[in-house]
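User: Before I run my own analysis I want an independent prediction to cross-check against. Here's the chain; please return only the structure tokens and, at the end, one sentence I can use as a sanity check.
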Amino acid sequence: MATQIVMDHTGDTRHIFDAMDENALSEAEGRFKELTLVGYTAALRTAPGKAELMRTFDPTAEETLFFPRLIGG
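Assistant: Structure tokens:
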């Protein structure tokens, strides 16, 4: 099972999906596009405490993190 973790002001929301299920994979890709379109940064967790920036949806990613855009003041 693959996981998309969306971080926001309330903490995090986890979306778990089966990458072998076409419908679930389509939903995950749609979520990826929707979140990155509104400014979230997507990162692939490569090891504990390590992540790599993602620009496109990777259906083989086990864990994708989404960080909201930081707003300075």
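Sanity check: Residues 3 and 16 are 4 Å apart (CA to CA).
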